[in-house]
Write a structure and sequence with these properties.
This protein is an all-alpha fold. The protein has one domain: Tetracycline Repressor, domain 2. The protein has eleven helices and two strands. A two-stranded antiparallel ribbon has the order 1-2. A hairpin with a 2-residue loop joins β1 and β2. α7 runs antiparallel to α9. The longest helix has 28 residues. It is elongated, with a radius of gyration of 21 Å.
């Protein structure tokens, strides 16, 4: 099964719909245009029209855009507030620092996807080869092929300058990703579907090529320098993994 076919008819389609739904701002009832004044209107619509409970999600969506576009060091809270159509003071009602805002962006966008992957390993009823394929292609469709990929690039580029954020990201994202891959491999070994390899080392072998593709798509990819077609790349990578992992008949 190719990546294109898989994405069209698989759990990845659900993940993509879920990402789209999470990214949409909450809707409020419309108001007559005549009732609006210049002071009421912001780039995202009339301030008094938007419900207060929608503001944190609007701020998080704006923050994700700013962090991905500019990186952590160059991102400014006033720019996030302006992108969300609120004042900087309003932003501080919900987030007390740029660090807390960044952590909330990661937790809101990444942790639900990690929970999906962990649940997939728990509930999966098919062959472990198909589980490996679902995890890799699901991660690509829901994270690597979206703006969330920019968070991975940000952490690779700036973690040395912000060790507290690096520690946070490792604890809440990387550790859980690695544990999910190890559990998937151990499942295959336990069921006699994978060879008895060292799962702790194999997780790094699996992660490294995917991470390379993620970073390439964020750096050289937009410049069209030696373009890489993700579908073909992932098809070949998965084939290589399975031919090394599967037990012989």
């Amino acid at each position: 099964m190719t990546v294109a076919t898989y994405i069209a008819d698989s759990p990845v389609t659900y993940w993509r719909r879920r990402r789209f739904a999470m990214a949409q701002p909450s809707k409020s009832p419309s108001v007559p245009k005549a009732a609006q004044t210049a002071s009421d209107v912001s780039p995202r619509g009339p301030r008094w029209e938007r419900r207060k409970e929608a503001r944190p999600q609007e701020l998080l969506a704006a923050a994700l855009d700013i962090f991905v576009e500019r990186g952590f060091a160059a991102a400014r809270l006033e720019d996030v507030a302006a992108r969300a159509g609120v004042s900087k003071g309003t932003l501080y009602l919900y987030f007390d620092s740029k660090e807390s805002l960044f952590k909330s962006v990661v937790r809101t966008n990444m942790l639900p996807l990690l929970e999906e992957a962990e649940g997939m390993v728990d509930r999966y009823e098919g062959h472990s080869a198909d589980l490996l394929r679902d995890l890799i292609l699901g991660w690509w469709a829901s994270v690597a092929d979206t703006k969330l990929n920019g968070i991975s690039k940000l952490m690779m580029a700036e973690s040395g300058n912000f060790p507290e954020l690096a520690e946070f990201y490792h604890a809440e994202v990387i550790t859980r990703c690695n544990a999910t891959i190890v559990r998937m491999l151990e499942r295959g070994i336990r069921r006699g579907e994978f060879r008895a390899i060292d799962a702790e080392h194999m997780k790094r072998v699996i992660v490294a090529p995917v991470l390379m593709l993620m970073l390439w798509s964020q750096s050289f990819g937009p410049c069209a320098i030696e373009p890489v077609e993700p579908g073909a790349y992932l098809d070949n990578f998965i084939d290589l993994c399975l031919n090394g992992l599967l037990t012989k008949p």
